[in-house]
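*** Fold description ***
***
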Amino acid sequence: MTTILIVEGNTPDMVAKGHAGANGFIRTFAALAPDVRIRLANPYATALHPDELHGVDAVVLTGSGVSWSVDAPEAAAQRAAAELVLAAGRPVWGSCNGLQLAMLMLGGSVGASPVGIEVGMAQKNVLTQEGGEHSMLMGRRSGFGVPCIHRDEVQRLPDGAILLAGNDHSPVQAAVYEKGDLQFWGTQYHPELSPLDIGIYVRARGIFSDHANLADDLEQAETDLAAAARLGTHPNALVLPQRSRELANWLQFVSGG
């Protein structure tokens, strides 16, 4: 049975209010692979200890709604956790903040997108040649869209990373780093989240609250054709497993399938 450690990207007070980055993964893994066992860690509450990686088959670095970037002093606990995770020799997944965190720790750079926040759907993602051939994006074709919500982005990939997909908003929307014992897959968008989840984030007070006007469409898009169209998508693209294609592929990879 596969055991996955989910490393939370939000602070304990955010988690207490129901805004845990782990929640989307827990729900999605339960739907895609009910036998997967989940462990949780929150470096903002307690520093990650190497013993927490014992018996773990793979690790997830979640997204985050904090106001600071992964290279800020406030994110020191997350960087320390990522250093342990990336050196542990287990497959690692990173969504949004998790992708940025890993790419920073491996020698890349991150920063606020020069074109602003991307909220709702990351649209018109184009596969690179490597992306069209990589297992992570099996089942995707250029032009696909996935729920997203982010301010920061990867602005320079580390040496050795491979770009798999990007769009006009953020050139790095999917990337991998596969060298030695490290098998890292990550996306800037959120295959673990539904549009409803994004709607909850934009309704909450925080760095994305200026986009609360999207909440109604986000909350209805899975069943309402017009709402989905206004977001640039279709309900068929928002149902499992299509919405979470990358995570379904990662779970298969992790389990050796």
Remarks:
- The chain has a mean pLDDT of 95.
